[in-house]
Amino acid sequence: MADNDRPNPYGVLLYYKYTPIPDVDQLFSFYDSNCNSLGLLGRVRLAPDGVNVTIGGKLSLLEKHIAAVKSNSLFEGTDFKLASSHYPLNDQVAKECGFTSLSIRVVKELVTFSPNPWLKSPEIAKAGTHLSAVEFHSVLQSAGLHLEKENPSNSKKLVLLDARNLYETRIGKFQTPNVETLDPGIRQYSDLPSWIDDNSDRFRGNHVLMYCTGGIRCEMASAYIRSKGTGFENVFQLFGGIQRYLEQFPDGGFFKGKNFVFDHRISVGSSDANIMGACLHCGLSFDDYSSRCRCNHCRMLVLVCDSCQHKKDALYVCELCQKHGKGYRSIPLVENDESQVITTPIDIKTVPSDDITLSPQIHSRHGSKPSRKLRILCLHGFRQNASGFKGRTASLAKKLKSIAELVFVDAPHELPFIYQPCLTEPNSKDMPSLSPHSPPPPDNCRKKFAWLVSPDFSRRTSESNWKMADCQFDCLQYQQQTGGFDVSLAYLKTVFSEAGLFDGILGFSQGAAMAAAVSARRGRPGGEMDFRFVILCSGFALNLPDSERGSINCPSLHIFGNKQGNDRQIANQASRDLAASFEEGCSVIIEHDSGHMIPTRSPYINEIKDFLHRFLG
Predict the structure, then answer these.
(1) Do residues 300 and 167 touch, judged by C-beta distance below 8 A?
(2) Is 183 helix (H, G, I), strand (E, B) or coil?
(3) Fewer Cβ within 10 Å of end Cβ, the chain: N or C?
(4) What is the reported pTM?
(5) What pLDDT, in 10s, does the model give residues 22-49?
(6) pLDDT by residue (tens digit) across 297-331?
(7) How far apart are CA 468 and CA 161, in angstroms?
(8) What amino acid positions are annotated as catalytic residues?
């Protein structure tokens, strides 16, 4: 029996509404109560400026939900997109699409438009003019003549902009003769603003026609284009998105292929059976994402046909990673969001955090497990290593397990083993003497590494080489470790090339100093490292020639001990000086009383989570 022939057919409901929400907590309670009582699963996102909802359940119960929502005057004029659907194909698809639980989350903005959460989003009130599916089709059919009639004296041309991601446009897009169609080819929506900035000349002075899946992404993107001022006023968008267009034109009209959707349906097509997508490996026509194959580098969805999926030791590298020189080498297959140890030709050792299954029923103000965890590269301190740092941050990884994956890597400078000689009986009444005992056996000693070393450092090649300490521990030794930066910088570029993408970098002590120096180079022309934020723990500033106070433009979280925090290694003022090197309004500071460590108790862990939640889409 077909799903829709069952006594209680299944369906999917999508809607959004941009409107000021006077009481977010009250609306949260409504969705929590209503969706749970009706047994609806999916995602509900609430923000001060509106809601965005994708939920599934029995059609009759979804209709009851719509009726309840309509009783609230806030939702007047909302376009409720209700469609009958099959049940989720399998648990993996349902889990990835968020249809195994109900996730209600309060967020800063409904869609993450910029990778920098401190940048002000454009005003939705200035969004482009809405066109119905029929109007949109008419404009395309006349190749711009419809808009020209509004002002016959102008000679503007029509530019069609697809506001979706590359994995969506692979399987379907609008194709119209005589109309220039722009496909940004981006991994994620937050990459769109910079693409628009780089291509603004293609919009200036023209009529811009935009479309996306259901309309919400065009609201923000069209407002952003119009915010550029003179020459960018004529922006129009498809109301209701591709979904409404295909309902109006079941044969597909000018839309070719399938419409990618963010629920268990995966994609929705027209009566036209032509396939636009192609297998990443063999190039044969293919457009089925149900296997959820992902790029081994950046984790973006890729199309791999059934035959190629069964090839032994197959590696998947998406078009964008290939474009940036990331090839089919050195990185093992990653499946089901469980990362394996990553190795590269320069012997990078990474130790990802464990992937732990969450409770199926999650609905909290701080949020549930996101569709994609943040991937954070972790840089250890001086004379540490990746596995040791993983152990020291186990509590942090456990408490962030629902939102972040921590990846650890050894620094490039291998250090000799150091031992302190034993104190013997004093030779005089005043001074003890040092015993020239042999160093400890090296068999069970783990190698230690550093990002920065002393200028006269020379790498020891013997694994059993020990060095007797020149003196007792010096808490200011980090001030003398100023060499090796260029080697470490080149090394991290290779890490990003071979094991990226990373959303952010977490550095501890000397690792924080290195991460800060890398963030100062973020976004420069020719830069090989792209990330969105840094977390700097017990950090200090490097004395680099091109650094100055307030000059680093990168979202940052600074965690360090207060003046009474008993951090014997990095002084409070040193960490404050590092924070001051970031632009004002770009950094968050957490001071604690726990010494030279990363605190994971309340309230500190909640502040860390709040920072990270800004980067979850």
Answers:
(1) yes
(2) coil
(3) N
(4) 0.58
(5) 999 999 999 999 999 999 998 899 999 9
(6) 777 899 999 989 888 777 888 888 888 766 554 43
(7) 65
(8) 212
